[in-house]
Amino acid sequence: MKNTHVLFTVQAALIAALYVVLTLIANSLGLANYPVQIRFSEALTVLPFFTPAAIPGLFAGCLLSNLLTGCMLWDVVFGSIATLLGALGTYLMRKNKWLAPLPPIAANTLIVPFVLTYVYRFEGSVPYFMLTVGAGEVISCGILGMLLLLVLQKYARHIF
Fold first, then answer.
1. Would you write out the chain's pLDDT as a tens digit for each of its 160 residues?
2. Are 111 and 79 in contact (CB under 8 A)?
3. Where are the beta strands (DSSP E) in the chain?
4. Which of 19, 61, 38 is nearest to 143 (CA)?
5. Distance CA 130, CA 116 (A)
6. Count of C-beta atoms within a 10 Å radius of residue 1
7. How far from chain centre, in Å, is Cα 63?
8. Which residue, 21, 53, 44, is CA-closest to 137?
């Protein structure tokens, strides 16, 4: 007999830990923050397609990652909320795997540019940052995330 609460908690914690590790790797390459962001960890935002445990896991992972990479408070708050909204959207889109990466792409493209503009005061406009963040999200979620989803789909019943 499975203890579903323990399984849920372990899956969420594992996803959070993976998110942190992948973000720290991207950060060491200068890709995790700033106007052009290609967080390898954002590929994990397709995981709510398989399990609702990914929702708190991704949120906690993003929150911890933003704290560990030295993000400002409002970035920690709103960046984590963007990931949470994206994860919730992916969970709601789980009937169609091809739609799974769209919510995190949209959430980050709409929220993060305002953080870059008004919190960090980077030179550039909100529409410009929507383009740069959106492109990074398409790479991270749309390409890497879909590759991850397709691979995991073969083993989902054993993993989730």
1. 568 899 999 999 999 999 999 999 999 998 878 888 899 999 999 999 999 999 999 999 999 999 999 999 999 999 999 999 999 999 999 999 999 999 999 999 999 999 999 999 999 999 999 999 999 999 999 999 999 999 999 998 888 8
2. yes
3. none
4. 38
5. 10
6. 3
7. 10
8. 44
> Of 138, 134, 149, whose CA–CA distance to 97 is shortest?
149
Domains and CATH numbers, the chain: 4-159 (1.10.1760)
49 with 94: CB under 8 angstroms?
yes
Q: What is the pTM of this model?
A: 0.93
Strand residue runs (E) in 1-114: none
